[in-house]
Amino acid sequence: MMAEIKLNNETSAITKVQIRDILSLPGKKRIEKILDSPYPAALVAQMPEIEIFLTIKEVGEQDALDLISLTTPEQLTYLLDLDLWHKDQIIPERFLFWLEILEQCGENKLRQFWRTADIEFLVSALGKVLRVYQSPHPEEIPEENKEAPLFSLDQIYYIEFREEKHAPLLMRLLHFLYASLPDIYQLLMQEILWSIPAEDEELALRWRKGRLADLGFPDFDEACQIYAYFPPEKIKKGPPLSLPEPEESFHAPTYLEVACNGTFFSQALQKELAEETQERVKWELAGLINRVLIADAAHLGDVEAFYQSARKALQTLDLGLKYLSQEDPAEARQLLEKIPVTRIFQAGYSLSLDLKRRAHQLVQKGWLAALPRREEILDTPLKETMQGLLRPRPLFFDENNGNFSSFTALTQISLTADRLNKISLLGEIIFELFDFAVDELMRMEKEPCYFLDPPLSSICLTFLAQGILYGTPRLKPLTSFELNKIYAQLKQESYFTEEEKIFSLFRELILGRKNYPSLQLVGPKEEGFLWWLKFLQNKLSSNLGQIRSGDEIDPRAVDAFLVYRSG
Fold it and tell me: DSSP character for 396?
């Protein structure tokens, strides 16, 4: 009792400035500064739980034993709430790891843990690493495992360790419990013996969710609302929104500074923004990162997951802020003064949801809906663009590195919108100008060719190759003989070295048919048509342009055309 009074008196003397000074230091120096203080426990008691967690992870648990020893019961519970669970289940290996860490912290810390942890958590966690019986020879144990005697301290409860390698640690801890906290030992043995494991874990999870919610970690369903659609154009035009007020004890997490570094958001935050507004925005941002972390189902004990969520939240927030402010830092500052951070984040994310909606319309109601392979018939980067947008949370496809990622820039939004425009125009191009029919495309894909599931470009080039060979384009694969013949003809007439010649040839083959000269090929349709011809020209040149004259072409090495399999 006297120790608690002393701690409370020392804690009340700690100032925000002292805490800020400590948090400005890297992990090891932070711990050294705390331990050099005349009142280290009071300093730790005032530190935000997340900073203690990040400090421990930065230096490693073994090098942070002194810091762990100084944590309050509430802080320790927070550490375990983050590190011992994955989604809705306790990780037994992490539980055992932390038991060993607490043992190294000393008996006082170990005693504090057993006394303050939820009984449902202890029963569920222990139940994952040991079994309890009321007989030294229980029938439940298979015959091959009955040779070794069960462990017992009181000849009342008999314990089987699920994995022998964990037995020494668990024996030591059970001896400690039995000797120091016999009432808790008896209760745990009784509960493990008779309780229903799933019910205990569910109840332990409920207590954990409640504690984390108090510290800014909402439950999964609430967190997912951050990804709800909110029309960006309505945010600035809508009625004034109420702004949340930060908690008095709030300290901006150090990872915010790392994540904010170099962002448009940080420019706006520093541009003549009142200190109280900066605190409120940082508090909102910390909550936003927590929501992203939960909504993305990340493992809370993974420090890198915190930084990834922070980066993702800042990137999407930046996107919304740039869009709403037209990339004007002064205008962005005004937005931060009157619009909640979550709304600005939703504005940025909704830009990608608008693109996702357009992609869905193309595969559900547009020209791709009529084709069995839908977006799979498209060429790179159009196919991957659709695949990224059609994911539960839309992603941007970077053609330069072949990776998918969250949208982080307005240029990515405009580039993706341009790709969707091209896909939409492709329907008009192939069905009106190339005069393809859906049943012809489906038949073409079933032909016994070297490459299965050919892209649209290969189908179109095969169609044009037939026109070059026989005067009239048609949807029919080439033979190996025709493949070599078309190559020789194009090579002889310098189509690979004079790009405009092949471009003009393609245009003539398409527009010189039927009544096509009367078509109104203007505006976006003309631009789309010319882009597609250029795309086909580039593919043809990259496939055949480097082949040496006189070499017979192996159809398995060329994907510009559909070629019948021999034999």
Answer: E
CA angle (5, 8, 14) in 5-degree steps: 150
Report d(CA 527, CA 384) in Å as an integer. Answer: 22
Give me the residue spans of the domains in the chain.
2-214, 224-348, 438-557
pLDDT recorded at residue 497: 73
Name residue 158's beta-bridge partners.
133
Question: In whole angstroms, what is the distance from residue 354 CA to residue 389 CA?
Answer: 10
| Burial classification of residue 559, based on how many CB atoms lie within 10 Å of its CB (0-12 exposed, 13-18 middle, 19 or more buried) | middle
Rounded Cα distance between 419 and 174, Å, is 64
Contact by Cβ (8 Å): 68, 76: yes
Closest CA to 27 of 69, 61, 56: 56
Question: What confidence category does residue 514 fall into, taking pLDDT thresholds of 50, 70 and 90?
Answer: low
Distances (CA, A) of 375 to 259, 372, 456: 36, 9, 10
Separation of alpha carbons 191 and 470, rounded Å: 85
Least reliable range by pLDDT among 222-231, 241-250, 259-268: 241-250
Burial 320-331 (b: 16+ CB within 10 A, else e): bbbbbbeeebee
Q: What digits encode the pLDDT tens for the residues 396-441?
A: 999 999 999 999 999 999 999 999 999 999 998 888 888 888 888 8
Q: Residue type at 202?
A: E
Per DSSP (E only), the strands in 351-509 are: 396-398, 403-405
Q: How far, in Å, CA of 30 to CA of 50, rounded?
A: 14
pTM assigned to the model: 0.85
Q: How far is CA 146 from CA 141, 149, 251, in A?
A: 7, 7, 56
With vertex at residue 348, the alpha carbon angle to CA 307 and CA 221, rounded to the nearest 5 degrees, is 65
Nearest CA-CA partner of 459 in 481, 475, 440? 475
